[in-house]
């Protein structure tokens, strides 16, 4: 799909207010808001995203390039914002789940900084890296503040006639969940629609699938991210780093009463060179688990350096997973170092209450990785330190 410049998508729009989030502090262990219909007005919606990206592109004087890489199922643009001209690529996406919004704000803050700052650090990053951000991957779900996209199984079958007699996928939502009316507007968990075979064409025998098997690239949202990834591979030879920004439920640091602020991970598929991962053996030469662990250590260290327990309550996400249908699993098998970010709570849990803290946590972690790759320090970290990051346990 030919990419379109944002200037061809948007009419000129001024944006007077700064997008930077004030550094607001919150009490340690603050609990989620429980009222129904919690306001999410403080987060960025699709129309605001277009305006903010337009403003960032204009004010950067060419340092940030914004394009439409594709369309959601309902026809909204999936924007990429690119900054830097280095030979190492960092691809980072937010809102693959439309009710996980803090990463979008964090990415806009980072893009504004890298597109406007003339500091030595910002210049070094632009010289060493090419950073490509997808700030709102699932814009249709974002507009409804829900996890899934908006797409029916019948629409999938129209696009892929070979699936006429296939069963709907296991990740197809058709009932009301957590107040989201998928019965009226079905959709898919897009983060189960990836496949390590980047040229995969859907086959009826691969449906309905399950969590431990690859996805299918049947949604336009996953197809767009796949195409961005492939395009960067063609241009640079490899996508060095892939970061995926999410939210999770509520956990404690194992052995403590401290609430987890964010869980992180490098582990989404078994090592292709191991007996457990033998089904992925064709990807063994690409897989860089130690590098993914180094990236996670860089993230963890960046947050520990804050010296504030709210920001340093970081845990490992569940380990020993087999999730090739996720973007993280698929891209790890294709040679990228990968990092999962999972801040606590969904937007319907907190609304705007903890926005400042959670956005800053994500922003600090992303910049810790970017700085470590740009100055090369991440490659000297001991990957075994990853195993020293505390585990999480559910709040009961």
Give a summary of the structure in a few sentences:
The protein contains twelve helices and 15 strands. Strands 1-2-3-5-4-10-14-12-13 form a nine-stranded mixed sheet, with helices on both faces. It has a two-stranded antiparallel ribbon with strand order 6-9.
What's the structural blueprint in terms of helices and strands?
Blueprint: E1 4-5, H1 6-9, H2 46-59, E2 64-71, E3 77-83, E4 88-94, H3 102-116, H4 120-128, E5 129-134, H5 139-143, H6 153-159, E6 172-173, E7 176-177, E8 180-181, E9 187-188, H7 220-236, E10 241-248, E11 251-253, E12 262-265, H8 289-304, H9 309-312, E13 314-316, H10 327-333, E14 337-344, H11 347-350, H12 355-375, E15 392-394
Parallel strand pairs: 4-5, 4-10, 10-14, 12-13
Antiparallel strand pairs: 1-2, 2-3, 3-5, 6-9, 7-8, 11-15, 12-14
Helix pairs in contact: 2-3, 3-12, 4-12, 8-12
Describe, in plain words, how this protein is organized in 3D:
- This protein has 396 residues and is an alpha/beta fold.
- Helix content is 31%, strand content 17%.
- The chain has helices spanning 6-9, 46-59, 102-116, 120-128, 139-143, 153-159, 220-236, 289-304, 309-312, 327-333, 347-350, 355-375; strands spanning 4-5, 64-71, 77-83, 88-94, 129-134, 172-173, 176-177, 180-181, 187-188, 241-248, 251-253, 262-265, 314-316, 337-344, 392-394.
């Amino acid at each position: 799909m030919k990419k379109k410049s944002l200037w061809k998508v948007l009419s000129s729009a001024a944006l007077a207010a700064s997008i930077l989030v004030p550094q607001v502090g919150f009490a340690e262990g603050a609990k989620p808001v429980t009222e129904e219909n919690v306001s999410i007005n403080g987060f960025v919606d699709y129309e605001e995203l277009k305006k903010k990206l337009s403003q960032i592109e204009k004010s950067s004087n060419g340092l940030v390039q914004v394009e439409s890489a594709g369309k959601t199922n309902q026809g909204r643009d999936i924007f990429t914002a690119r900054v830097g001209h280095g030979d190492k690529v960092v691809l980072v996406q937010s809102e693959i789940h439309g009710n996980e919004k803090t990463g979008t704000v964090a990415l806009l803050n980072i893009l504004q900084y890298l597109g406007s700052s003339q500091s030595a650090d910002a210049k070094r990053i632009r010289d060493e890296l090419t950073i490509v951000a997808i700030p709102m991957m699932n814009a249709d779900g974002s507009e409804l503040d829900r996890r899934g996209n908006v797409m029916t199984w019948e629409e999938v079958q129209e696009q892929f006639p070979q699936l006429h007699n296939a069963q709907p996928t296991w990740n197809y939502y058709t009932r009301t969940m957590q107040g989201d009316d998928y019965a009226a507007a079905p959709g898919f968990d897009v983060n189960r629609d990836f496949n390590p075979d980047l040229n995969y064409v859907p086959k009826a025998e691969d449906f309905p699938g399950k969590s431990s098997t690859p996805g299918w690239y049947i949604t336009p949202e996953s197809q767009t991210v796949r195409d961005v990834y492939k395009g960067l591979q063609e241009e640079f030879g490899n996508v060095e780093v892939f970061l995926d920004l999410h939210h999770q439920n509520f956990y404690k640091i194992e052995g403590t009463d401290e609430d987890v602020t964010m869980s992180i991970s490098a582990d989404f598929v078994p090592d292709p060179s191991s007996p457990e991962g033998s089904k992925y053996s064709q990807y063994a030469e690409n897989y860089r688990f130690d590098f993914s662990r180094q990236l996670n250590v860089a993230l963890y260290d960046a947050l520990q350096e804050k010296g504030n327990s709210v920001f340093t309550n970081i845990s490992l996400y569940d380990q020993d997973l087999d999730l090739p249908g996720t973007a993280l699993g698929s891209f790890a098998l294709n040679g990228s170092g990968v990092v999962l970010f999972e801040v606590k709570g969904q937007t319907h849990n907190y609304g705007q209450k903890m926005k400042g803290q959670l956005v800053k946590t994500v922003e600090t972690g992303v910049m810790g990785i970017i700085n470590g790759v740009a100055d090369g320090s991440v490659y000297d970290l001991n990957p075994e330190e990853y195993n020293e990051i505390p585990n999480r346990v559910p709040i009961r």
